[in-house]
Amino acid sequence: MVIIFKNPKVNEHERTSLADDVASGTTLSVQDTSGFAVNDLILIGQLGNEKTEVRKIATVASKTSFTISAAISFSHSQNAPIYKYYYDKIDIQYRTSSAGSWTAIAGMPIDLLIDETHTSYNHISGASTYQYQARYYNSVTNVYSDWSSVLPASGFARDTLQFMTDQVYLLFNDIEEDSATRNQIRNFFNEAQELVSSRWDKWFFLYREDSTIDSEDSVAIYALPTDLQRLEAILYEYTDDSDNTYKYRLARKPEVEFDSLVADQSLDENNELRIYTLRAGDSTNPQGYFETYPTTIDGGGTFYVRYYMKMSELTNPSDTTPVPIPRILVDYAIGNLYDLKHKEEKSAYYLGRVEKGVEDVKQLSNRTTGQKEFIKIRGRRKRMMDFYGSASIQDRDTLHENYF
Asked: What residues does each domain of the chain span?
């Protein structure tokens, strides 16, 4: 099982360059030694190039020269970059499943493959179900970095933050990841999710109907799901003393009407629960609450909340987007990167692909949910419109919510 981890970036580290060509030895003439110190690791050359090498600074001789602990192995030309390099090795662990304990791999840490942009390791006993994590190591200071995010041996799926970010760098032709940080690209992805969410409030891929809440004795107010964006319906299910099970939709009432019914006390706890209203959120649950009437006297029932959820922000590499065409997020990020570089034509091309992608998802939504037509007004159109209003097509759920 070959696993691959990206080498640490160097482009944002302290940097200088060779003042002269150098073919051998331990003395390097450089443009400026500011920012470098004894025992610092340095990278001579560009990460990923064949003749790039790592050395340790032995002495800082002057503002334009330092010596290294071991002679260079390759010739380097004038102006070749030299970076402070914080880590020269990598430590990898594995676990056999997401519930397992982490196990050290014998022989770790190993040298980073600095002539590549990534370091690969062949875990001979590994399996496709394994998971891995890694951290970098400085062999001079004995300092480790934080552990990386978990890497599944099977790789990341196309809807994960990790995969989509890699796609952006690949399609933007930026293998070195110089155009933007991963955090910046992640922010573009989250903006794209907000854009998709704003285009329609009934995306099929955001619909949830399996959220359940158990009713409690003499309790009327219950918290709505924390990821709720648009409430569709609340159903109630209970079993009577004869073991007959009933499940039905509660009628939603405006707060004023609901409060009036409660004040009239026209129903008591022995009546079947039938109506609810929505209450404002608070610091405990910003999404709000629903209040039922009458209050159940013995609990034992279950509320089924049907709703359209908010898309969660993408944060960790394994986080997934619910958008069924992940390329929309990738195109949005690339379009914005080109916009930052003032390449309007390329930016417009990719942002145009975003709009096309959103329309494709709408078409997919129509095929997934189907046409929910309940009433179609035909003939004598004007008089019927005068009576019913301009909406000639209504779905069953809307009619049930408003009129039954």
From this structure: 1-155, 204-309, 371-404
